[in-house]
Amino acid sequence: xxxxxAILQTSEQAAVLLDPQRLRLLNMLHEPDSAAGLARxxxxxxxxxxxxxxxxxxxxxxxxxxxxxxxxxVERLLQATATSxxxxxEVLGDLTPTVDQDKFSAGYLAxxxxxxxxxxxxxxxxxxxxxxxxxxxxxSTEVRFASPQMRAEFAAEISAALAAAAARYHAxxxxxxxxxxxxxxxxxxxxxxxxxHQIEHTHA
Length: 204
Known about the structure:
By secondary structure, the chain is α+β, with helices and mostly antiparallel strands. Helices cover 41% and strands 14% of the residues. It folds into three domains: 3-85, Arc Repressor Mutant, subunit A (Orthogonal Bundle), CATH 1.10.10; 92-136, no CATH class; 139-170.
């Protein structure tokens, strides 16, 4: 069963993922398929498809999901390791976003979101290695504000509510306690359509 979301931890994985042909193959491997099956669907040489599948498998973006026999041949069935992928911003090294001082800027929100993705990637990797489940909490909603003033009033109210809840539940000296990072952010809802990934019909 593929993971809902996998967070890639290395620049090598990111490079493999962002190749247009491999990205298209991943989109086609939500269900198991063989190199021969993919080659037929894409009308590409099997050798070219095999080349990209080997790169995806080496980067742990696809895994062996079974085998099927066609005549005297046994074909390997591969499947994407996740339904969707994110890249840990820390693979950018010194270019990783850093939080500035303006809490109302898009940069502050983007940097905070990037830190959350980086933290989740590192925590998820550690949890998987230890065989444990990562404890998280997500609350998401949409609000249509009638005016900028209403938006500002909402921000003040939700900030006060969060501060009160944090003060009530924060136990810095509790034995066995665990610190969680809480973040709230808001941005205009986007209705832009998703881009369809295209595969280049060229020989590797």
